[in-house]
Amino acid sequence: MCGNRSIEPSAPDPDEPLRRPLPLPLPRATSAPPMPDTQPTPFDRLGGETAVRTLCEHFYDAMDRDEPALAKLHELDEEGRVSRRSRDRFALFLIGWLGGPQDYIAQNGHPRLRMRHARVPVDIAMRDAWMRAMTTAMDEVGVAPDLRAFLLGRLADVADFMRNRPG
Ligand code: HEM
User: What architecture is domain 42-161?
Assistant: First the structure.
């Protein structure tokens, strides 16, 4: 027995960006091994910064329109919509989480998502409302089905990790 505790499995860190390439079956002309450095990140596959920011706008617009109880937990502007500041902070985070530039961490430090959501009452209803708004946004911008399934699966894990209220 080596007694090395470092080999014990640990839960994946929900704050960890999706830097690694997507584990998707990609058509290959040869049996050559994949080249991880050249495979696109989810950020690349979505279309880069402009596309991720567009996705975020659809997400908060869907939240404003369809999930008023969730929207009200956020900072709102004079028109009662989720504020520009909140939209931009999440967009910067998402850009990095998807494997793009790490400006959110450079400006704000480690995301510590659970800690940053501690003052927000997140129960099952809010978790599901968050996921519905994100699903609507992905459908509105037309994310490719394989990428959509992968990202919604990962985001569902993060959203569930954010729960801090029973029920
Ligand atoms: C599960 C239900 C969730 C609820 C109810 C929720 C709610 C909120 C609220 C109220 C804020 C504060 C925004 C403001 O200042 O107005 C916030 C911030 C934020 N949320 Fe969530 N959120 C949820 C899930 C998530 C998930 C799944 C992610 C990541 C994938 C996420 C990432 C963030 C980030 C990055 C911020 C900005 C933190 C900062 O820089 O201050 N949230 N969220």
Answer: Orthogonal Bundle (1.10)
The atom of ligand 1 lying closest to the CA of 93 is 35
Does ligand 1 come within 6 angstroms of the Cβ of 75? Answer: yes
- Long-range contacts, 40-46 (Cβ 8 Å, 24+): 41/98, 41/99, 41/100, 42/18, 42/98, 42/99, 42/147, 42/150, 42/151, 43/18, 43/95, 43/98, 43/99, 43/100, 44/99, 44/100, 45/144, 45/147, 46/98, 46/143, 46/147
The reported pTM is 0.85
pLDDT single digits (tens) 55-82: 999 999 999 999 999 999 999 999 999 9
Atom of ligand 1 nearest to the CA of 120: 10
- Mean pLDDT, the chain, rounded, equals 88
pLDDT higher at 86 or 35: 86
| Ligand 1 and 130: CB distance under 6 A | yes
